[in-house]
Amino acid sequence: MSLPASLAPIVLFCFNRPAHLQQTIEALQQNMLAAESELIIYSDGPRNSSDEPLIAKVRAYLSSISGFQSIKIIKSEANNGLAASVIKGVTEVLNQFGKVIVLEDDMLSAPDFLVFMNEALSAYESRKDIFSVTAYGPPISFPGHYKEDLYLAPRASSWGWGTWLSKWDKADWNVTTFSGLQNDKNKRNQFKAGGEDLWPMLVKQQRNVIDSWAIRWTYSQFINNAYGVYPVHSKIRNIGTDGSGTNFTFKTGYYGSEMSDNKIRIDPQIKPDQQVIHAFADYYKLPLALKIKNRIKYGV
Q1: DSSP letter string over 189-220?
Q2: Which pLDDT band, with edges at 50, 70 and 90, does 248 fall under?
């Protein structure tokens, strides 16, 4: 697989974690295609006065960054929150460039992350059944027969991912068919093929308990009968599950920590494998205590 003539711009969203951000940028600077890539950074504004010193540190650091073909920094005075920032920022960049690679401020990337992402964006752009690609591979147990380096899963990843304008334009951020999904058990079960956590998340999104762009993006893939492309061996490591994040306020080592340096073989004609999809869904099974809480509190 060869690189496309034009590289996808990298969009990075950051908030109030200067130490995480610096690690994310330093890993990205080590990438083989960093010097040829455009970097666009969205820096969200403070929620309250206690955020202001941290955001000042973030922005002082941002002004010192080098190592990319170009760097554009968009600073918000108000706090938009991650969901609104991602939807607006990704839309803006896609309208200009047609494709995008997206990171948040707590993602370490392998040195060939950008190479893989650009190759994958090129390989799968014309596939109507693929809405996104990611370099993050959760540590799932693969069946013995599976020899591919990539696989398809009915879920979108929010960690080191990319997409195209033609697919992003099909997103339904208002979840307009929610009531139909709510009243159709078969459809709900199909939706949960990407993990049994998806339906409770979508319910909480609709009830304004959470504010997630990622669950709505996964739902958009689902209603379009589309997949995300995942690597068997991850090229992304999340360093935000240490209790510092907006969405991860508890510590966990649950999401795997190994990153692979191996070249990924890309098969443009890759097909879904039901055993792999079952193993993928198993990884996202909910603990019994959380299932009980969801049933009691939210009726799901």
Answers
A1: HHHGGG-TTHHHHHHHHHTTS---HHHHHHHH
A2: very low
